[in-house]
Amino acid sequence: MEIKDLSTEQLEKAANMLKAIAHPMRIAILSFIEEDKKLTVTEIHKLLNIEQSTTSHHLGILKDKGVLASKREGKNTYYFLKHNTLRQIIECVSKCAQ
Q: What is the pLDDT of residues 8-28, one digit of tens each?
């Protein structure tokens, strides 16, 4: 499928996903999750050395825009990429930033 084949609604959704990703802290979050990992808020905030509330805020945005999904297991909620093809975007951003 090519971009020209996408509906206005699909283009809007894609743009919103890219806007959600376009933040330094969210790119950092995705760099940890993109390696087939499922991480909790606590694990992510410790990896990034930021407040847990800030981490939750960024995770909420990524989840709301369809970038991440979550699964509750016991008292923990694990976050992971909703679509594995997003790995290509994350990889591209990483390579382009070098």
A: 898 898 899 999 999 999 999
What the chain holds in terms of domains, given with CATH numbers, is 3-96 (1.10.10.10)
Contact 42, 4 (CB under 8 A): no
SS (H, E, C) 28-66: HHHHHHCCCCCECHHHHHHHHCCCHHHHHHHHHHHHHCC
pTM of the predicted model, to two decimals?
0.85
Rounded mean pLDDT for each run of 10 residues along the chain, 98 residues in total: 81 90 91 83 94 95 95 94 83 78
Task: For CA atoms 15, 59, 61, 73, give the dihedral sign.
Answer: positive
Inter-CA distances, 93 with 10, 52, 87, Å: 21, 25, 10
